Amino acid sequence: MNESNTTEQFDYMMKILTIGDSGVGKTCLIMRYTENSFSNKFLNTIGVECKSKTIVQGNKKVRMQLWDTAGQERFRTITNNYYRGAHAIAIVYDVTDRKSFEMVSSWLAEIRKSRGSEAYIFILANKVDMTEKRVISEQEGAEWAKNRDLYCFEVSAKENLGVEEAFSFIFSKIFSKMQNSPNFLARNQENLQLSRMENKKSKSKKK
């Protein structure tokens, strides 16, 4: 897969959400994957933010939209609105924080309640570099995910461990299904239309 800086026309538009408790590292994971950068400075995401990455797969240009959602309870209603049309949803927990791991069940239930279960669901176990503070073992996390037929990846945004591999796997699953599933292709077309409308609004404002 090769990256491209062209941002005007795309064959496919992928929408990927990251959800999970506040402080688990959702923003850091997205920044690491899209910009290969990391900051120790902690800032709560307010509402929903989006980063993009363009990838060329064969003769197709794909825009990956990675949506960074707030983990605080007061933003939960806003976050729920973004489940619609998502191709994949990554639930993130912190391996040094058992509460964030226990809350994964709650996030999963919320996805299914909001009809987001048609999307691929992935678990990202973040901060695996903090071995001395770790309270959730790789085996415990993997077994929890396996029992629910979910994919689980051990990652570290800080040390850039497993991040590229996890998102590349997510990309490949979505890309394959887009080419074979009318439902996934319809989501792609809807997201492309929304993106083009946003681009037109942006150009109008500049004029």
Automatic annotation (TrEMBL):
InterPro entries: P-loop_NTPase (IPR027417), Small_GTP-bd (IPR005225), Small_GTPase (IPR001806), Small_GTPase_Rab (IPR050305). Keywords: GTP-binding, Lipoprotein, Membrane, Nucleotide-binding. PROSITE patterns: ARF, RAB, RAS, RHO. CDD domains: Rab. It is found in: Endomembrane system. GO terms for cellular component: endomembrane system. It comes from Blepharisma stoltei. The keyword GTP-binding applies. GO terms for molecular function: GTP binding; GTPase activity. Gene3D superfamilies: P-loop containing nucleotide triphosphate hydrolases. This is Uncharacterized protein. SMART domains: ARF, RAB, RAN, RAS, RHO. The keyword Metal-binding does not apply. Pfam families: Ras (PF00071). Belongs to the small GTPase superfamily. Rab family. NCBIfam families: small_GTP.
